[in-house]
Amino acid sequence: AQAASDTAADLTAKLPELNIGLVHGRMKAQEKQHIMAQFKAGELDLLVATTVIEVGVDVPNSSLMVIENPERLGLAQLHQLRGRVGRGNIASHCVLLYKSPLSKTAQKRLGVLRESNDGFVIAQRDLEIRGPGELLGTKQTGIAEFKVADLVRDQYMIPQIQKLARYIHQNYPDNAKAIIDRWLANRENYSNA
């Protein structure tokens, strides 16, 4: 909220002829709704916002979005944000502002947005780049510690594996517990879930 407030103040000082609004998550809902209504009605020329505008905002006359530090956001979130512009019949653009140098991973991730507007393609590439994280744990991103399987490459096998896992769990509970204990580093008791 502070960075957005600073940006709005800076832009207001540099562009005094424009009516500039500000929306962030720490504002009361009624205040946010009022500012969004002003923007939608064309009473504001420019809106500075945090990611609070990611969902549920429909301003068809909005034609330009500038996202600062996009490397800090997930691809799904960036895709949602850029979807806030271009809803009307005016050509629209989404500009991603970042400071060099970007890591190789950040370059790949932002490249995905440059190459595709398809949310499913973006989600698939995000999974490939960031990794699935832990299926049974708290780590949301990163390469899984599987020794053989690759969730992206082998996803077609998941229904068969689930069926086999249920069979083992129901018919051989001691074996199921031994398998879980062998493969899970954090040793949670998932066999009794």
From TrEMBL:
Residues 1-128 form the Helicase C-terminal domain. InterPro entries: Helicase_C-like, P-loop_NTPase, RecG/Mfd, RecG_dom3_C. It catalyses: Couples ATP hydrolysis with the unwinding of duplex DNA by translocating in the 3'-5' direction; ATP + H2O = ADP + phosphate + H(+). Transmembrane segments: none annotated. GO terms for molecular function: 3'-5' DNA helicase activity; ATP binding; DNA binding; hydrolase activity. Its EC number is 5.6.2.4. Belongs to the helicase family. RecG subfamily. This is ATP-dependent DNA helicase RecG.
